[in-house]
Amino acid sequence: MIGDFDSETVIKHLANKLDYPFSKLFGEFIKSCENMLIDPEVLSLVGKIRAKKIKVVVATDNMDSFDRWTSSSLNLKNHFDALLNSYNIKARKNDFDENGNSLFFGDYLSTHKLSPSETILIDDSEDKENLLSNYGVNCRKIEYGTGLKEELRNIL
């Protein structure tokens, strides 16, 4: 998830372990990436938030597949201000350097002259050891598959 392995390498490994043809498995993997869905109501809420001049960014601990197939099939660049992917950044959301600087969010925050306290992270993952909260990020934990629309409405 931090750029050590591309999709082909991961799928080749799985195909070998499963004794399954790489081309079939890789083809299905690409299809699954391209066929992901996003709730139209989420996009509507994101649009309303952005209309208030509030930046909305996707922050994901993901693979290169997110950029290669998922974000393009969902046209995410037209709906969000930025797409931050651990694969490209080479760090996960909760990775910090020895000085307490966020390896994942630091460059984005610096480029846009934002402090962590000006951000909200809506995520279905725990803020382990309160690293992001201690950094100043307002972390809002949601359950996987639920809660996102409610949190977006709260921002409005």
UniProtKB/TrEMBL annotation:
Cited Gene3D superfamilies: HAD superfamily/HAD-like
Domain of life: Bacteria
Protein name: FCP1 homology domain-containing protein
